[in-house]
Structure formats: C-alpha cells, structure tokens
Amino acid sequence: GLALFVAVIFVELRQKYPTLDLTLFKIRQFALGNIAGFLNGIGFSCGPFLRSLYLQLILGYSAAKTGLLLIPMEIIVFIISPISGKLSDKYGSQVLSSVGLALNAAALFWFSTLNQKSSYTEVLVSLILFGFGMATFFSPNSSAVMGSVISEKRGIANGIRMTVNQTSNVLSVPFSLLLMTLVMPYTKLSQIVNSSQLLTSNEGPLFMKAINYACLILGIITLAAVIPSLGMSSGKDRKTSG
C-alpha cells in the first residue's frame, strides 16, 4: 500500500497535467490548511464510533437510541455552518478555524474524562463542543484552502482537499482502535467491539480506560492542528500557484 502511494506521487510529479497537482503544496496557505484538516479529521471522524461504543457497551443503550442521541451534534453543525462561513468572509479564516480546532480538542479531552457512571448529559457536552467546533472549523478552513489557489486550478485543488479529508476519515477509526490496543489486548478489544453486548464488570473498567486513552491522544493531535491553522493568513490574502 505504501509503495503504491509513493509510486502514485512519483508518477504525478512527472506529469505535465497531473490529476493531483502536488506542486500546489508549495503554497503556504494551501499546505497548512490541508495539514490542519488532516489532523482534525484523524481526531474528529472516529468520534461517532467511540461515542457509539460508549453509549451501547457502557451505558447499555440500543443502536437505534444511540443513533438518535447523536443527532444534536448534526443539528448544531447544520445551524452554525452557514453563519461560520459568513463570519469567515468578513473576518478571515485564521481565528475561526483555530477556535474550531480548539473546541474539537476540548470535546475529545472532555470525553476522555468520562467513566462507567457518567450520564448521557455528560456525553451531550462533548457533542455540543464537537458540533460548534466542526461548524466553526470546516467552512473557514475550506474557504482559506480554496482561496489560496488561482481559479484555473481550483478544481484540482478541491480534489486534493477532498482526498486529504477522505484519507483522514478512513484512517481515523483504525487509528483510534490502535490507540485502544495500547491499553487493552487486541483480541479482547476485537471481541468486545464485534459482540455489541453490554460489558461484564471485569471488562468495563479496562475498556473504559482504553476509550479514555484514545480520546486523550486524539485530543492532543487535534490541538496540534491549531499550529498550522494559526500559521495561515487571515483568509483575505489570495496567493497564486504561478
């Protein structure tokens, strides 16, 4: 897989009209925006998975009820995203996207403190933080990345941006499981995740510790994304790729 990825990069760099124009990463704002988006995706995309595990296996909710209880985050994203986009156009993307990343990191840090006796209300706090964080980050970041490229190359730029986002989404859940295996043996973790049954009194504390550890590390990664985000311009500057 890695060899194929390297081969694709090598071939694309040698093409006169590449499908993925990697030279766009020479543009500071484009590169930093994509790095921030990738790091955020690693931490954010596994959120529904980890929360579902907690609600079903720790609190004992059904799959249907769990799905309904996760809706508040989507509602917040739906309401706040258009507002965030307008604020980004007016004030620039740098501060807004950085605040969004900080909120996403806070959601993960909060979730890392939950235990077997926590309630849905405490889960809801992380959902609200995630909702505001994603709505505040996504639109300004996308605007900054796309605005840094000349109009003729925005189609290719958007393709690269979506590839980066999808890659982080795909890697997020496996990476979160990898982090959990640092606390709980993989065979036992796999058994628990695939069984969808309420945990025993012996399994619960260790599984909860594994979730907490994964959320803590993912929160640190998401918070680290603030660094490239702050390194971007205000969002009003428009650079070209030459």
Q: Give the strand tally.
A: 0
Order of helices and strands: HHHHHHHHHHH
Compute the separation of the termini in Å.
Answer: 33 Å
Q: Count the DSSP helices.
A: 11
Give the overall average pLDDT: 85
Outline the biggest β-sheet. Answer: none
Catalogue the unreliable spans. 235-242
Q: What level of helicity do the residues show?
A: over 70%
Quaternary: single chain
Q: For the CA atoms, what is the radius of gyration? A: 19 Å
Q: Structural class of the secondary structure composition?
A: mainly alpha
Q: Characterize the overall form.
A: elongated
Structural overview:
This protein has 242 residues and is an all-alpha fold. The chain contains eleven helices and no strands. The protein has helices at 2-13, 28-44, 47-58, 63-69, 71-91, 93-111, 120-147, 154-181, 186-195, 203-224, 226-230. Helix 6 runs antiparallel to helix 10 (203-224) and helix 8 (154-181) packs antiparallel against helix 10 (203-224). The radius of gyration is 19 Å and the shape is elongated. 36% of the residues are buried.
Features:
242 residues, single chain, disordered C terminus, mainly alpha
Secondary-structure blueprint:
Blueprint: H1 2-13, H2 28-44, H3 47-58, H4 63-69, H5 71-91, H6 93-111, H7 120-147, H8 154-181, H9 186-195, H10 203-224, H11 226-230
Helix pairs in contact: 2-6, 2-7, 2-8, 2-10, 3-10, 5-6, 5-7, 6-7, 6-10, 7-8, 8-10
Outline:
This protein is mainly α. It contains eleven helices and no strands.
